[in-house]
Amino acid sequence: xxxxxxxxxxxxxxxxxxxxxxxxxxxxxxxxxxxxxxxxxxxxxxxxxxxxxxxxxxxxxxxxxxxxxxxxxxxxxxxxxxxxxxxxxxxxxxxxxxxxxxxxxxxxxxxxxxxxxxxxxxxxxxxxxxxxxxxxxxxxxxxxxxxxxxxxxxxxxxxxxxxxxxxxxxxxxxxxxxxxxxxxxxxxxxxxxxxxxxxxxxxxxxxxxxxxxxxxxxxxxxxxxxxxxxxxxxxxxxxxxxxxxxxxxxxxxxxxxxxxxxxxxxxxxxxxxxxxxxxxxxxxxxxxxxxxxxxxxxxxxxxxxxxxxxxxxxxxxxxxxxxxxxxxxxxxxxxxxxxxxxxxxxxxxxxxxxxxxxxxxxxxxxxxxxxxxxxxxxxxxxxxxxxxxxxxxxxxxxxxxxxxxxxxxxxxxxxxxxxxxxxxx
Length: 425
Description:
Blueprint: H1 7-10, H2 16-31, H3 35-41, E1 46-55, E2 61-72, E3 78-85, H4 90-106, E4 112-119, H5 127-141, E5 150-154, H6 160-174, H7 198-213, E6 222-226, H8 230-242, E7 245-251, E8 254-257, H9 264-274, E9 284-286, H10 288-293, E10 296-301, E11 318-322, H11 331-339, E12 343-345, H12 347-350, H13 353-367, H14 373-398, H15 402-421
Parallel strand pairs: 3-4, 3-5, 6-7, 6-10, 10-11, 11-12
Antiparallel strand pairs: 1-2, 2-4, 7-8, 8-9
């Protein structure tokens, strides 16, 4: 049974905010969501647009535009990353904030969803310029963030160092150290062990569960990874350690593939030395399109949104798609993949490891009691396995694909919390 989305709202030329709303609308029909609650969940609670003046290295002043969106806080304080990217838009940030609400709900952690972004090209900026911009952006959004209100985290092109600047700026305004204002920090100032690989590790956990569900042996199985930033690089490393053969990877400059398997250690070293996987001598040159369509057991989209479409979905040859990125698959592609028997592990499930360990970091900061990495990883595995199991149960019960099933679980929990709390005043 395929989903029946409003096609006019989710065609590939439409933006991700309309796509996120259409996904909610689809599940609202499926679960019979109360119309008032549906209307409430369909829009963000709070949207903040800020101007971010920044002194550049040549002493000129440049003004960037930044955003912080809080979608829903019925289940707890808002949680979500901050991305620095030239293509950041308000609609993108709104969509990502909504997806964070569902993601936190699905893994059953007491957070709502938020997201932030600054329109900039961090690759063209010096460390001093990045610091100036980050600190000013933090100052501008400090009116709505805080360890009990909204806790930012890393996202596209933001790093532990950038999180350290956010934590320091906020703390200096308050007059004392507040490590719990942000997660994804360096270990030395209250970060959590295991946070750097958490997104990839969570993705591996649910991919392994899916492999078991379809009766495939992990040892010797193949994986293709599109995107080689933090999530993609660590996915390659962890999947290889688990017994998968990494047959193709790519980044924004190009890709490389080898059906016999790539040497992941050498590939990571090459990427760190040159800034790209393109040109790696251990395989043949491949395009991002070819990476997505190559034959493999598990395809891991780990880059940006809308890369799997109705146009290329019929050519995808993976058995499982584990979405390490946010929003890589368009809704019409979901239907095609479902009808072809390809299991899609949706972003709100597959990449929820990052926010789960961010929650662990926040808890450790508040309690001033830090865990060893084995404890972090074990608790992460427990959360991810349970979320997969609950999603699979709904998928089988309702005879729908895994994304719709994940939304059923997540939206139902947020709707219940919203109804219980009511509207005040």
